[in-house]
Specification:
The chain is α+β, with helices and mostly antiparallel strands. The protein has nine helices and ten strands.
Length: 245
């Protein structure tokens, strides 16, 4: 197996361990049919069950290669950016916005288990539904336990109704919004706008120049929220999965 080929894909250790399914991820966004066929041969020889591929939406050859190889489209990934500016931040709200506390975790996990049904794991029916729920509960837990630089919690009448996780690049020039969650009973009440606004305020205050967030094209509510908060789309990718039977 040549180095050139192995550099095009890798075993995704975390997903493999979490789902108990040997999972590979293609590491380039553009690929030709010859290289893709070689990757799939290598993956099968290595005992891989499923291959994930995030294709550049602008590269028709890559999309055709994936479709011809039997990949299934499970998501359209939208990346949005905001050029940080304190002047453009809207934070007026009656909610209490504060940092995460240890006692919050069970409530955050409860919310996270029920609100991400538009993601690619749910649209790939090979993944057990309950395990998909667990994925986002684990994600928010890991964020609260140090993976995120800040976790902001929204309270209304002493009940947690939302959260947002914030990550800084090593040089603190760029920021990333990871998970954004609003409880089902609090939707439509301005919670999302409030917590995104507080995250923007914090990013701007610590000197971040640009903030990114990723969502799904089918998540119309999230796209509308980020655009109202000044984010603009700057990249589109197609998530494909291929299972070996």
């Amino acid at each position: 197996m040549s180095n050139a080929k192995t550099e095009l894909w890798q075993i995704h250790e975390w997903e493999t361990a979490f789902f108990g399914i040997s999972t590979a991820r293609i590491t380039v966004s553009c690929i030709n049919t010859e290289d893709l066929d070689s990757i799939l041969d290598e993956c099968q020889a290595s005992g891989v069950r499923v291959v994930h591929y995030l294709a550049d939406a602008d590269d028709d050859d890559s999309i055709l290669a994936a479709e011809r190889a039997g990949f299934h489209l499970v998501d359209v990934r939208m990346t949005l950016e905001w050029n940080a500016s304190m002047e453009s931040v809207v934070t007026q709200t009656d909610l209490i916005l504060r940092d995460y506390r240890v006692g919050d975790l069970s409530r955050l996990e409860e919310i996270a288990r029920t609100i991400y049904r538009q993601t690619r794991y749910y649209y790939d029916r090979n993944y057990p539904r309950e395990r998909c729920n667990d994925l986002y509960a684990v994600w928010i837990a890991k964020s609260c336990q140090g993976d995120a630089d800040r976790v902001i919690v929204a309270e209304q009448d002493n009940i947690i109704v939302g959260f947002i996780t914030c990550q800084l690049s090593p040089d603190k020039s760029e920021g990333t919004i990871g998970l954004v969650g609003v409880s089902a009973e609090a939707r439509g009440l301005g919670v999302g706008r409030a917590i995104v606004g507080e995250a923007q305020r914090w990013f701007a205050a610590v000197g971040v120049r640009r903030v990114r967030v990723v969502t799904q094209i089918r998540n119309i509510a999230a796209l509308a929220l980020y655009q109202r908060c000044g984010f603009v789309v700057n990249n589109v990718g197609f998530w494909y999965h291929k299972w070996f039977r």
